[in-house]
Amino acid sequence: MVERQSHLRVAADPALASSLPGVERAVTVTEAATVMGADESTIRKLVVSGELLGYRLGKRGVRIYVSSIQDYQQRRAIVTAGERKAKAPPTAPRRRNDAAHKESLAGLAALGIIFKPISR
What we know:
Layout: H1 2-12, E1 26-28, H2 29-36, H3 40-49, E2 54-57, E3 61-65, H4 66-86, H5 99-110
Antiparallel strand pairs: 1-3, 2-3
Helix pairs in contact: 2-3
């Protein structure tokens, strides 16, 4: 009887679930959103897309594995760092001087639309 009460206590207190062998800790969508600094709808989309692993609890409840959140954050940290290095510095827009552009400007002028380039 004592053993049964301890299992009930673990079920009531998710923080104790990690003490059981073979049981992985899971959190609600709200808790995951708080930890990740994202909106709940974003977390739900990540679960649907398979980027976060979790399970359904009842009809509407969703639980997300903590290890899945940690893995996702590590993957995003690696990608984000790589994206920062790959981005080129912003450049000023180039002026077009090809024949097609000049022809378009001439067509606009024929319609009475005056085009004045912006001086920099």
